[in-house]
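Database export, one record per block. Field names are fixed; values are copied verbatim from the stored entry.
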Amino acid sequence: TTSESVTITVTAPDNGGGGGGGGGTNPCAFGAPQASALASISNSQYSNIYVLGSGGPDVSNWTNFTINWDAANNGLYQFSVLTNNGVPSWYNDLLPSVSHTFGSAEPEVSISGSGITGLDGDYYATTDGGNFVLVSKTGGFTIYCSETAGAPTCAASRGSVAQASAEPAVAALQLALYPNPTADSPTLAVLASEAGTAKVLVVDLMGRTVYQEQLTLQPGTHQITLPIQEQPSGTYLVQVQTTNRHYQQVLVKE
């Protein structure tokens, strides 16, 4: 899968005092709290994350939010954020910071000790179509994780949150990374539909770049060998950066 860095923070001015609960004064509640338990969300990855309303975390460096919730087994198996600058980390596993009641009516999640400024707090969890939504119970804001670019619009007593526009679009790349996991040097295949340039980086979870290469792209498939065979075993992030897109995949080095 690919991850596009078109994350945008959208904020409306707060003219109405302190924020209230998600279903009360938050104008972007998307029906939360919902009456039923949260339906399964199977390993869903969202590359467009927005903050609607007043306050909340700065998500401008988030390139991916992933949730894996199995309602049948009442199991939350992944709740994570990838960033494009390693702040607070490149890969942020939020599971240890989360407690939830996704399997109950009015599903909620509490986040504590995440290390992400403005994220800790109590939220109602809901969905909007195929999108995952966290509605702050006390802060008057909503975190909206979307499958498509373009923030939703929600009317507010404090004003309206208008749809934001991304940077000028360029043709998307298609990536394949194999073998993965690997003990040797994997191959990154990049399929481009038009000419351009891109930078490839391999970064460890401490934020250190262990390999980088500048690419001149022509229409077609480019195969790049990533010479990491001498690197220690562990998890690495393979990043491809163009002028206005950022792709990121997780590589496991055995």
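Remark 1: Residues 1-24, 155-170 have pLDDT under 50 and may be disordered.
Remark 2: The chain has two domains: 41-152, 174-253.
End of record.
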